[in-house]
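To fix ideas, we close by showing one paired sequence and structure record:
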Amino acid sequence: MAETLFRERTDKSAEVTSVELFFDLVFVFAITQISHFLLHHLDWLGAVEAALLLLATWSAWGDTVLVTNLLEPRSQGVRTTLFTLMAVGVVFSSAIPDAFAQRGLVFAVAFVLFQFGRSVFMLYATRSRPALFSNFLRTSIWVVAYSALWIGGAFAERELRLAAWALALLIDYGGSAIGFPTPGLGRTATRDLTVDGGHLAERISLFVMIALGESILVTGSQFAELEWTPAVVAAMASALLQSMAMWWIYFYWTADMAKTVVTRAEDPANLALRAFGYVPWLLVAGIVVGAVGDDLLVAHPEGHPEPAAAWALIGGPALFLLGAVLFAFGAFSKWSVVRIGALLATLSLAALVPLVSTLLLSVMSTGILIVMAAIERTVVARQRR
């Protein structure tokens, strides 16, 4: 009897398997590499490059999550494919710090192999399912189209490489948003896709947890190497409380409620892609930038913040809050006044940068997150009653 590659669909959401969690470990490494890249390239060009690397990482991970949402990870064929992708993922993750220097070609080739290899396997897996096969054939054609920009860009100088890779990502994300229209094959309709919304929501939640864990790892490693003066201890406390507040904002009610809404939607694929396909990378970006700011904070908590430290300490929470606002809208089709207010309050801290110390700036940005989380908790508790 031939091995079954696809999950059996039931009324309950599929559980996240150990092999999926094992696969995610590669992306723990990738997130750490991006944090280190940003920490050593603290200027606007470095920030844009880090954002591009994070978008590429999110594309590789997110597209694979959509695949494992369909497939049975316990089958030998799927496991072998995931292990192969892990090996390739380690290569492009290792190349991240020098992706815009001497290892650009290594990064580009490994990234393209990751994307194309997964698409080829899906063509094999869906060969007896015409609708899904057509979808992954369209996807594979688009992967080939943007691969030339990744490979060609690796031979260009830094700024031109950035432009080529940004265009490749625009094609990647843009194609996904409009259903990968292809001459002779049409485009993908979300109603043609079978998506387990609960499983997808769980995978995204775990990735956000991975990013939060990475931020604590980065800041904690810095803290362990320093002399524990009162200012350093206070800085570490502020950084840890910020991570806790971010956890609370995403996990207290939003993640579970969004999971329920997606599971019950008439078109779960469309809602899942809108809420979980694109927006959560802003949450992750906020956590990564916040981790960089916390690293700089713990190292130099006293005195006025340097410009790079200031934009990281404000930009991290601001990006996270922007992601939280858009995530809530994508899942529930409602704007959160509380989250928008917290975002504006965080951005307004920029006016205080010349007047406050690095530690005080961190305490204020962390305080905004805590106050917002407390207000939301009160509102949600009233609504539940």
Remarks:
- The chain has two domains: 18-188, 197-384.
- The first helix runs from residue 18 to 40.
- Residues 18-188 form one domain.
